[in-house]
Design a protein that fits this description.
It is a single chain. By secondary structure, the protein is an alpha/beta fold. It is 43% helix and 15% strand. The chain has helices at 10-17, 21-28, 36-49, 55-65, 78-93, 107-119, 136-143, 167-180, 197-212, 229-240, 254-266, 300-315, and strands at residues 67-72, 97-102, 124-127, 148-151, 161-165, 186-189, 222-223, 248-251, 276-281, 294-297, 324-327, 330-332. The chain is elongated.
Length: 348
């Protein structure tokens, strides 16, 4: 039993049990997310040290000690809305909340948001990293015993858990489908982020699928553009001005693809009929736009479930090598890629 002249703290319990303070806190608050073996170690330390749970003090700490920080790149992309809904649901069931921040693809802003979250003593970080994120960031988080999970983009040397999809395969599925529909000149639209692993894997898949069919990779058909509707509108205007324009477009994401459909209409063309279009992500709007958009589903709701589950395991004391969860993509064929008729000035 510890001496009565020094109050035993929850940190003392955590140190004795060999777990983080957040894990010890979850045990005393009765969270069901803790592994039985970890729960047993913490209880044994509590009994050995004579720790008394101060509920009054804990009430002032409860928000930060059961809060996960989530940082994404873009609030406007519906992909994140659907994924975050699942994360929130999983965390809520285990008595957790989350703080949400946006980086806007800025490393400086990302660092500022993360610092704010650390000041609020979050017990875990889920991050879609900006392209120049350095692995030293994760060294800092490990020193603070704060688990980190990367969402959708990897950072070499981070040592963090990861949830994402096989972007290369997804791109291959999209391009193979377009080639099998008879297209030989297929544009890739989107992405202005060299170093972005999700972008690079998509490009690799696009190129490799063309090469499978003996088709040339034409650099003029790879159109970099911001990852938004406006980028898609501007890109398709550029595509249509090419001397030998493509008959199909594979877009980096659905938001760009929706911009392409708008841009085609503005130029007097009918999306799908005059140019085939395939997106990537399978956001809800792809089923309501006309024509309905063929896209590659990455099952973003499952991303949310897996990310939350893995984060809860880490907070609960799971010790293992970094976990990489890859959710296989699936091509969803709709009207935008199967009703192509062509135009006299768009060579099939």
């Amino acid at each position: 039993m510890a001496s009565r002249d020094k109050r035993v703290t929850l940190q003392d319990v955590a140190d004795d049990a060999g777990v983080s303070r957040a894990t010890a806190s979850l045990v005393v608050r009765g969270s069901k997310s803790i592994k039985p073996s970890t729960h047993k170690k913490v209880i044994e330390s509590i009994e050995k040290l004579g720790y008394v749970y101060d509920r009054v003090a804990a009430s002032f700490r409860s928000q930060s000690s059961s809060t996960v920080g989530i940082v994404i790149t873009d609030f406007e992309n519906p992909f994140y809305h659907q994924m975050l809904t699942k994360v929130e649901d999983m965390l809520y069931k285990q008595q957790f909340t989350f703080l949400l921040g946006m980086s806007s693809e800025s490393r400086e802003k990302q660092e500022r948001v993360l610092e704010t979250m650390l000041e609020h003593r979050v017990c875990g970080i889920i991050l879609t990293p900006v392209v120049d994120t350095q692995p030293t960031l994760f060294n800092k988080l490990r020193a603070l015993q704060i688990p980190a999970l990367l969402m959708g983009r990897e950072v070499a040397g981070s040592g963090a858990d990861y949830v994402g999809t096989d972007y290369r395969l997804g791109s291959q599925l999209a391009v193979r489908h377009l080639v099998e529909q008879g297209h030989r000149r297929i544009a890739y639209i989107g992405g202005m982020l060299p170093g972005n692993t999700a972008y690079q894997e998509r490009i690799d898949g696009y190129c490799s699928a063309l090469q499978e069919y003996g088709l040339e990779v034409d650099p003029k058909l790879i159109i970099p553009t911001p990852l938004n509707r406006e980028g898609g509108i501007r890109a398709i205007q550029e595509v249509l001005q090419l001397e030998n324009p493509p008959t199909a477009c594979f877009c980096h994401n659905d938001i760009i693809a929706l911009g392409v459909t708008i841009g085609l209409r503005l130029q007097g063309f009918i999306p799908g009929e005059h140019m085939a279009i395939v997106g990537f992500d399978n956001i809800l709007e792809t089923e309501t736009v006309e024509p309905k958009l063929t896209t590659v589903s990455v099952f973003h709701d499952q991303w949310g479930v897996e990310a939350a589950r893995q984060m809860l395991d880490r907070i609960g004391g799971l010790q293992s090598a970094p976990v990489k969860i890859i959710i296989p993509p699936k091509l969803i064929v709709r009207k935008s890629s199967v009703c192509f008729k062509g135009l006299p000035n768009l060579k099939a």
